[in-house]
Design goal:
By secondary structure, this protein is an alpha/beta fold. It contains 11 helices and 12 strands. The chain has helices at 39-48, 66-69, 72-78, 91-95, 98-108, 112-116, 186-199, 215-234, 239-250, 255-261, 264-281, and strands at residues 6-7, 18-24, 27-31, 58-60, 83-86, 127-129, 133-134, 137-141, 150-153, 158-162, 203-206, 210-212. The strands form 2 sheets. Strands 1-2-3-4-5-6 form a 6-stranded mixed beta sheet. The chain is globular and about 50 Å long.
């Protein structure tokens, strides 16, 4: 199967959210599925590969954030044989997404429906908690962006990275660390980057967006900017100052798709919450 992502055309924009189709010993699988607002684009992408939704046996989720997993319940309702693989931490929130939806609605307000659409529950019998190996892929925890994040490493050297390897809208070389509230943790993410480097993947399959074929350089750049942005907010930068600095780094051409994939105001909110929690605990 081609490794290029299926473009989910989020809000009509290309190269913001993708999903990957991969072959497993149990048939075709998807890595992440995007939100419910992108289901028709997902089906069109499958048709372009000669498949229907009902041909897909498994859905491998990196984590339960709506841009990666929001459509899972809608897909299972339409295709009841679909098996959904998710971390043990994330699994209860697929079965009962009420807390997840409540949190997301607080964050996005009136834009929730436009951005994400319906958040339907996944029946418990369709949920499989991930272990060390999933359908022949190595699976391992990769917290930092979110506590329930996992990555999958194929034997061909492809790391299905979710958000653990950051946002990089190909062909740009800019790597953005997505740090939304409430779970960003710098030390955990640094440990995840150590683990990604130790496993030495040959390529990174990024949901936002495309294949990065230079993992050592990409991960080093992510680590550098992760530290720089965390320090910037820790040193007292305001949201406006943070957004101005981030936009200047991105440049006019790259800013729109990156801002849609991971808005800078959200990254600031997650970084500020991180520092607030640390100061409260001191």
């Amino acid at each position: 199967m081609p490794l290029e992502p299926l473009d989910l055309l989020h809000l009509g924009r290309e190269r913001v959210i993708g999903a990957y189709l991969l072959e497993t010993p149990e048939g075709p699988a998807l890595f992440d599925c995007g939100p419910a607002t992108c289901v028709e684009a997902l089906k069109q992408g499958l048709r372009s590969r000669g498949l229907q939704l009902q041909d897909v046996r498994h859905l491998l989720l990196s984590h339960i954030h709506l841009d990666h997993a929001g459509a899972a319940g809608v897909l299972v309702r339409e295709h009841p044989e679909l098996q959904v693989h998710v971390s043990p931490i994330g699994a209860p929130h697929l079965v009962d997404p009420s807390r997840l939806e409540q949190s997301a609605r607080r964050l996005y307000g009136d834009e929730f429906e436009t951005l994400w659409g319906e958040l339907a529950p996944v029946p418990a019998e369709n949920v499989r908690e991930t272990g060390d190996v999933v359908l022949g892929l190595d699976c391992f925890p990769s917290p930092g962006h979110a506590s329930h994040h996992v990555c999958y490493l194929d034997r061909d050297g492809t790391l299905y990275a979710g958000d653990a390897a950051g946002v990089r809208i190909q062909p740009s070389r800019f790597v953005l660390p997505p740090t939304p509230p409430p779970e960003f943790d710098l030390a955990a993410w640094e440990s995840t980057l150590d683990e990604l480097e130790r496993r030495a993947p040959e390529r990174l399959a990024l949901i936002h967006f495309g294949i990065a074929d230079d993992p050592p350089e990409h991960l080093a750049e992510l680590r550098r900017r992760l530290r720089a942005w965390t320090s910037l907010v820790g040193d007292g930068a305001s949201e406006e100052e943070f957004e101005t600095a981030g936009t200047a780094e991105l440049g006019d051409d790259d800013a729109p798709p990156y801002q849609q994939a991971m808005p800078l105001w959200q990254s600031y909110a997650g970084l500020k919450r991180y520092w607030d929690k640390r100061r409260e605990a001191a």
